[in-house]
Amino acid sequence: MYSRISARALARVIPSQAVKASPALATSSRTFATSAMSLDAKKKERVKVHFPGALDSHFSQVLEIREKMEPIDTFRVMDTDGKVLDSSLEPKVTEEFATKIYKDMLTLNVMDLILYEAQRQGRISFYMTNAGEEAYIGSAAALDAEDEIFGQYREAGTLLYRGFTLDQFMNQCYSNDMDLGKGRQMPVHYGSKALHFQTISSPLATQLPQASGAAYAIKRSGRKNCVMCYFGEGAASEGDFHAALNIAATTSAPVIFFCRNNGFAISTPASEQYKGDGIASRGVGYGMHTIRVDGNDVWAVYKATQEARKIAVEQHKPVLIEAMTYRVGHHSTSDDSSAYRSKKEVEDWKRHDNPMVRMRKWLESKGWWDESRENAHKSTQRTAVLKAFAAAEKRKKPQVSEMFNDVYDKLTPNLLEQKKELEELIKKYPEHYDTSNYAKEN
Predict the structure, then answer these.
(1) Which one from 192, 331, 337, 402 is the annotated catalytic residue?
(2) Looking at 117, 146, 421, 424, which residue is catalytic?
(3) Is-catalytic flag, 117?
(4) Distances in Å between the alpha carbon of 98 and those of 92, 206, 215?
(5) Which of the residues 332, 364, 393, 401 is marked catalytic?
(6) pTM
(7) How does the average pLDDT of the chain come out, rounded?
(8) Which sign, positive or negative, has the C-alpha torsion 246, 249, 250, 255?
(9) Is 212 an active-site residue?
(10) Tens digits of per-residue pLDDT, 60-77?
């Protein structure tokens, strides 16, 4: 009920000299003294409130209207040239570990280029690239293999790091009979029970409350694991975001909310998406540990996720990470980003703050990478992707009956009736229901 009170309104009830004696408008708030007593004296008299809704607050005779908070800094380890800024933050990792991360980033780039072009040729129906955001693979490297992951749709690199094969990626994008999702989802909606990666959903932000629930279940089970939930800053405008953070905070659920703030919610720039200090400030508002990190810095992302996981697993508390990055590619193959940003802007980001370049330069400074290894890996992976692509393209679609399975443990009477009706239609009108490209029924 209490909102902004103008100086004119206060003048009606407070003597003019009291208004004159009040502090000037500060950057973060407006404060009005209600008497001539000094602010220091007021603070000495502060008494903690007894209301259950704000137990850390104190009573005050100073009317303070808060407008802004101190901005949260962005943690980074490397500069844009791959140089570690503080020797104490130098990653203590092996050559094998570091090169695996970079190799997966390269493989992701190769796969993105091929599948993007495949969609443009009409060979698959849809695709989303990861260009400019590859450093999030550092977060995957900081997790335990049995930590549960809820993704949005730009986390193919996390699956790649965990061992999802190129064949599995291609089978899903083609929705063929080897697709783990049995052809029921559009491309890039991956999932793997074996790799603890929950199937991606198209509706925005639905994975957030699901992640909170899964984390609470893990807490109750006694497992020494956590949940990692990825999403974009656009999803943070959905009600599910707020519900998820609130329930995670109040139940002390071991979940890491990883926001990829890439500057655009499809075509809506961050400047129009929200006000205030980004997404990170909301974590503080919900009473949870919060980190803002340079999302183009692999080692900063890795370190931030490491620390977040310790808090989640050891203290059973949620953590919000806001990774600041920039989406270089289009939102998806259904989007043309030139309609809302200039080509120069995109090229400037690719040239001046490229997560791939940062990581490569760091590896080269250690003597762990060079041009020949770069070219060899790209060539090998291109061949491997094209081989998996060709194999997936040749396979048949799943059995028609798969559209009825897995809804319930056993087919219900109404599903059996629908299945029978479809079979009869296919048999009666083969010219309209061509099933030659579908796997044969058992």
Answers:
(1) 331
(2) 117
(3) yes
(4) 10, 33, 29
(5) 332
(6) 0.88
(7) 92
(8) positive
(9) no
(10) 889 999 888 899 999 999
**Cβ count near 68 (within 10 Å):** 12
Residue 309 and residue 143 in contact, taking contact as beta carbons nearer than 8 Å: yes
E strand intervals along 152-299 = 197-198, 227-232, 255-261, 264-265, 268-269, 289-294
State the CB neighbour count (10 A cutoff) for residue 157.
26
Per-residue b/e over 213-235, b at no fewer than 16 CB within 10 Å? bbbbebbeeeeebbbbbbbbbbb
Alpha-carbon distances of 262 from 30, 256, 304, 354, rounded to whole Å? 33, 18, 18, 13
pLDDT < 50 regions, the chain = 1-29, 31-36
Catalytic residue flag (residue 60): no
Q: Which of 202, 334, 342, 379 is catalytic?
A: 202
E strand or H helix at 365, and its extent?
Answer: helix 355-365
Q: Tokens 């009979």, residue?
A: 177
User: Phi and psi for 67 in degrees, rounded to 5?
Assistant: -115, -35
Structure tokens at 433: 């229901």
Residue 331 bears catalytic tag: yes
Output the CA angle 434-438-441, nearest 5 degrees.
Answer: 110
